[in-house]
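Hello forum,

I keep getting stuck at the same step: I have a sequence, I want structure tokens, and every attempt I make locally crashes halfway through. Rather than fight my setup again tonight, could one of you with a working pipeline run this one for me? It's a single chain of 154 residues.
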Amino acid sequence: MNENENRWRVYRATFDTNLFVRTLIRKGNLPNYLLSLWETGRFVLVLSQVIIDEVQKVLSRPKMRLKHHYTLDEVANLIDLLSQASVIEITSSFELCRDASDNKFVECVILGRAHFLVSYDNDLIDDAELKQALFEFGVEIVDPPIFLEKIQET
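Reply #2:
Ran it on my machine without issues. Output:
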């Protein structure tokens, strides 16, 4: 890829719920930095309403809020922010994950034509069969530090 092609490449990425949770439980971390890069246009964040709803449900749990000291207003602000992502409608079902609850991310990344599924979940990252299946759709499963390296290359 020459310099001009590289300069104009904009990646599309879907984040696992755990990244959004980490943005509220610890300020100034890598997930927060990645969200700020998205807000400045360094990549396109691709989500589905199912993912956004799960983020809201997880972060709204009273035990989570008490343990990690964030407010419902902070949850609402994050959900409002995520609503500005490229939110796609899930129109089909892919059952490629060992953990069926992770299929929503696979569906989103495939139907949203994303390049990356970004997660800290080793069950996703280490699943060779899933990696191969997603590779055929042009998708790479990476952890946040690798994703940061990829978008800094552009």
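The radius of gyration is 15 Å. If your local run keeps crashing, start a new thread with the error log.
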